[in-house]
């Protein structure tokens, strides 16, 4: 078997699971169907099939400014949007809530869709709402998004003096973590502050996840994890799922893109005018389209997109620090406008397998990264819930 056939065959005989995409907004805001052409997006049924993607956690994200005061309303709309897609495509899609569900869907040739809430503000400080979301099928919650909430600090607003910070988790925040352990809902530390991260590890009885975070040693963003944090997640028997967003994998790109923020903010404001005039929430897609246009017309002349090799450097680093049993894929597709060059959609996911095998990783090691590690963590979280139940 030649080298190309080897990595190709390994990828397409592996259960590939992605821990995080933001596609549900398209279902609700655009009336877009998962079987439609991508139309600028990064994931649909066709791309999943081309990329050998067997299971996907869909992020249920209530944008905290546009939906202030209606977080639960927006969260339920997005959950419903995904459930309607599963119902519409029941011949090719299945809802998953357990590791066994993922394996069963794979055996039957169906794409398994799972849900994770992104941002603890969605529970509106209510453990009852948390339990309702679990009953609807949600199996992880990112404790914060880029906004600090009433019970957990985010990494995204630590320099904002107008935001009330807590020094990590409040006592209610610790109750949230304990309730998630009891339910069997994975605790996700992507987006949280360093203090919150350590409070979570002091509180949880189950393995934790970072559903879409890369390595801070390689790209100095607070959204990424330090080597000490990577090691701690390994000790906790958890998993870090590497994010594909250029800002989190390439410092040169991140700094150059940040230098254009004033220009882009003006373009965002212009794109928002129509929605503001109607008193309607601004869909995230409006900002993504501004970013795509800005890249095509301006930024592409200044800065090349990072390569897949740079993305693979993050996989390599997390593997070396945390260990091969604690790494997975957390693309964040549809959560940003631009991907690494050569990783434009889920159809290019085989590039991860190719790159890892070319760097010397074995078939068994690659299969762990592609999905087996996440299945192990899910089973451990399910088992802890059963013990507490």
Automatic annotation (TrEMBL):
InterPro entries: Dipep_AS (IPR000180), Metal_Hydrolase (IPR032466), Pept_M19 (IPR008257). CDD domains: rDP_like. This is Dipeptidase.
